[in-house]
Write a structure and sequence with these properties.
250 residues, alpha/beta, three-stranded antiparallel sheet, 9 strands, elongated, binds ligand BJW
Length: 250
Amino acid sequence: MAHPTPPPDLAAARAALSRARSIAVLTGAGISAESGVPTFRDALTGLWSRFRPEDLATPEAFSADPATVWSWYADRRARVASVQPNAGHHALVAMERAAHARGAAFTLVTQNVDGLHQAAGSGTVIELHGNLRRVKCFDRHHPAVTWDERETPPRCTQCASLLRPDVVWFGEALPQAALDAACAAAGAAQVFLSIGTSTLVEPAASLPFAALQAGACVIEVNPAPTPLTAHATWVLAGPAAAIMPVLAAP
Ligand code: BJW
């Protein structure tokens, strides 16, 4: 039986990806939704529909109530430890391998803190907002490898400061090397793929616009519109786990 004709944006996006000599990808929470990791801003299921970010995802919140913030992140850490990458993550691994096989540059930038791109087998992953699986101390950023789960929060063995998740909270600077690499990739990309992000949180939200300004074609994969949608070259409206395998298929 013949394959159905793909919709025009999908066919055009596939063709652009297959020709591009440099591809940059930005992912957000939506790519992990089908792995069972909640997004932040989806109306019914997003974390921020139940919790206030200023109570949990700021350094001020941690200083005011470290036990609550530590426990909330400990729950999330336990949850991501039990989930698996989905077809969207795996499609990006295939896309990276295909790009490298034909000598094209491929840069994967993620806002996600769940480590699922690495679990799927993606090569270099630029993490803009840290990683939930890592822990560091609040005062001096000493990394912690083991800690006592009975303490909420435990203390740093080097300086006795409280331990916190190694993620980027509102008002905190992103890791400079990661941000520099992401900006460079956006500026050099011929095709920029924005997947599963609301395109609301800066500075990550500016990356697809920087790519557009530098002359890239921008593909958005998202079931809902975002501030990028009206500007994207091609919009693929739907869940990443369904669209990405089609986009990455040889
Ligand atoms: C699917 C799907 C499916 C669903 N398939 N898709 C300029 C202007 C205005 C404000 C600012 C600005 N510059 C800085 C700011 C302030 C702030 C900011 O951006 N605020 C805005 C919200 C107004 N930014 C910051 O504070 C940043 N820091 C900073 O700029 O510092 C400057 C500084 C410099 C020097 C010294 C000191 C400071 C830091 C931002 C940190 C963000 N942190 C979080 C929490 C991480 C830890 C944790 O996990 O708890 O990062 S917030 C949260 O949002 C998380 C995410 O990475 C981030 C982005 O969210 P994302 O991934 O887009 O998820 P959602 O839920 O928003 O969207 C999901 C999307 O998926 C939706 O569109 C769905 O439709 C879609 N979807 N199912 C595909 N199956």
